[in-house]
Amino acid sequence: MTVSGPVLALVRDLIFSSKIGESAKAVGRPVAFARNVEEFRARLGDNPGLVLVDLTAGGLDLDAALRTYEAAGRPAPLIGWTTHALWKATAPLHSRCDRVMTREELSQELPALLREHPGGDEEVR
Questions:
Q1: Which helix (H) or strand (E) holds 96?
Q2: Which pLDDT does position 101 carry in this prediction?
């Protein structure tokens, strides 16, 4: 069975990291987490099939993270998420994402998104 390349998630929220990890495990998708821009830069070289970015992550230079992603040639679709309350505040970053969702939407659609977005050619035996 062929599976997609790993999901790369730039997220600092431990609870939401757990949710992403559990959903990825349930659908058989490998996931790598980055908690800062340096880790994100390093993991972009792992041929991700999908990139998830928390646009509300405090303490992160999200502009630098997105510049890094763009400099890497936009290696995979990027889904950013925010909250209803911070939608306007994060709006300058939205155009740099392939899709922007609220945290609630992402929570509901995460299993389907993890199955839909291909990448890599890792073989599971």
A1: none
A2: 98
- Model pTM? 0.89
Among all chains, which residue has been given the structure tokens 């392939």? 98
Distances (CA, A) of 65 to 27, 28, 59, 70, 86: 27, 27, 12, 9, 19
Residue 22 CA to its chain's centroid (Å): 14
| Amino acid 118: pLDDT | 57
Identify the segments of the chain with pLDDT beneath 70.
1-4, 117-125
Interior angle at CA 87, CA 109 and CA 16, nearest 5 = 45
Q: Which domains does the chain carry?
A: 7-116 (3.40.50.2300)
